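Service request form, structural biology core

Requester: graduate student, group of Dr. S.
Request type: structure prediction, single chain
Budget code: on file
Notes: please return the result as structure tokens.

Sequence provided:
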Amino acid sequence: MAGIIVAVFWAILVSFLAMVLVRLAQTLRATTKLVADVTEQAVPLLADASATVRSAQTQLDKVDAIASDVQEVTSNASALSTTVASTFGGPLVKVAAFGYGVRQALGRRTAPEPEPEPARGRSSRRTVIVGRTVPSARGRKRERRNARGQKD
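Core staff response, request fulfilled:
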């Protein structure tokens, strides 16, 4: 009787192992098919990616050439502006100063200018910058304030 029980359990165990092996074989076949399909689709994708990277590299080379040309144009424009400023800047200032002097001389020659009265305690000295009158900084009194914003 014990032999029959052991034989039945042995038969059940072998059947169970056979089913597990059949399922494992099916899983391995499906995995092999999946890997083959992925490989089949990945090869063209990798070729496209490689072509895209090559195209991007070509475009980056073109952009680099453009950037170097822009840098050269910028340096040329800077040199040109420096040349123009040094060539015309000094003489223009001299011409403006000469014109101002001539105007002042002609103005004094036609009618002497009376001395202006100082306004509200300010100094009568004024600085003239290309036709504009700016009050002198010497006559101003500055109010000092402490850390709290109050007058000292």
